Amino acid sequence: MTIKEIQKQLPELKNIIQLKVGGQKFVYKADYQNNEVVLKLVRITDADDNNVLEDAGLNRILREVKIINTINSIYLPKGNSGIDPGRLTSRNGVYYYYVEDYIHGRTVREIIRDNSIEDKNQFIFELLKDVCRGINELWKRGYVHRDIKPENIMYNESSNNFVLIDSGIAYATCETSLTPTGMSVGTLPYMSPEQLKATRCRDVRTDIYSLGIVAYEIAHGQHPYFTRNMDQTELFKKIIMYVPPELDSQTVGVDDKILVIINKMIKKRAHQRYKDVDSLLADIKNIKA
Amino acid sequence: MLFVQDGHGPGTKVTSSLKKGLADGLILEPRTKSSTTIAKYIEAIQDEYPEKRILFDPQFFASVIKADTYGKLNSYPYFKLLNSASDFTPKKLEQYVKETIDYQCDLGLTEIISPALIMDSFDSREQIINAGMYELSENMICILGSNLKLYLSLPINELALQQKEQLLEFLNTITNSKVYGFYIFIDRVRSDNLQWTDPQRLANVMYIVNVLKDNNYDVIVGYVDMYSILLKAAGASIVANGWNKKQKHFTKDRFKQSRGGLRKNKYTSIQLLNSIFIDEELQPIYQAGLIDDVIMNGATDSKLRNSPASQEWTQGEEVMHYWTVIKTVMTEIESKDSINKRLDYLKKIINNAAATYVLLKANNISFHPETGPQFLSVWQEAITLFEAEVS
Q: pTM for the complete prediction?
């Protein structure tokens, strides 16, 4: 879909520029009434009116829209109430669109890549605290994010906090699963063992695990399991079977209290992790005690 | 904490243990007391010892056991035999939960034990029924009020403890429960020997207790003999046992017609971490001049220092000393501020017990399978297996 086609159907959006494309998803930045917003488009049908997005995929998008429009938290993206979600048509097919407030900042992946973490202890402390609050906001409403990774955590430079973005595959514990039994969703290196096994045991502890892997990666400077060129089967095995070396505060330069928390977050058995975000947050607050 | 697992013929044993501070509470068993007796029994204890805690295990699991006798259970309004699939519809489960919880509330109790069936495996039909009853119990307690503390009942058949993967999955599920605690007991496969023979099963019981404790639940383990000290070290907040074998060791045999039998006096040795027969074992130890190696020589047992077989040793004295030993070891365990220190302490006293058994053997003292040292190596191995799981 061209920017001209978008602008014609959404004339209230100005200065539209494309940010990224991934699969059937297109992300743009635009101005709306003196604010910067993010416009997200998901292709539903092609030019011949054939579905390119399964029902489950569309339902996930609708779920994400529901989440961003109903939860008001600085730790999660906000839907833009001025523009209702809807459909756009182009000669390439039909697209579903929705709009979020634009977050000024970088993703944690970009920050890691730029080597711009000055104080690892402070960075991990703030990251854990803020993302936990985001996870808790979702969990209080019965959602599990299921795709926590450095690419899905942004540092908002306007409000100086981390934001957990992209709840596209959030799992609603009270609703019908959108994923057929036996299938896993998420991003493999950050998926919990129970996600890989595709058991029905998917609760907040899954998100706690993934956040723990992100924190481990920052503390250690490398992922506990994943290395470049590793094939999926090997990674799968490592996540299920391999116990990563416990981090040593002397070697990695991170406070022992933080490492103890991370080690508990990434336990393979869900029942050995933190039971809930409140008990994790209590330990995080104790870091500074 | 140590609780009395109530049973037949309490006499003054229960009140004495509460008065002396050996026991901190009581778990009632409706099989041994009628519904008319139990209310008065509770009232009498609450009047005299208001600070002591009382729990009532509804023993709902007996509803599906083919028994020779249900004891006094038939006198309870919530108890009925359930023998067909149609007895377990969601609507009926709701009724059972309501009746058993209402009954405990009517007794004025504030710590409530949920109904449950004995799980033969962690993916059995019974476990599925239990999952339904747990959820209904949680919901009901939510409605009834915040002053009530709910303990989910986990009656586990010993053989289920062999299934590691199912156990881990089960723990993942139950650690999501929003309840105050769990009341666990193991339905043992052997009724003739109280000792554990399979270290892996014992390690798994320790693991269950530890996981639940680490998930901030209050963990009560019922029907535990001396191995209660292992469970205490693993994280149990309360262990419960009583004065006869059926209160220290749960098997379904309690629902069979009793064949009676002569009770042989036993003595619990803190040095041996075991109860031994007075006439057949403690007396020869005395005759070999080794009595000080096995007795505590405190207020509860000093009279056995001289020719123990010739001393009068009532069941009341026997159990008071038994509780004194368990309480003494548990107090020491409680004083350790980490699981590693607690396990180190256990290893130390197990090694000491093994050394004492060696000394006794060298002096030609022989033991029965149940009173001999075999259990010590099972405990040692269980601790090693448990440590590997929690490290």
A: 0.89
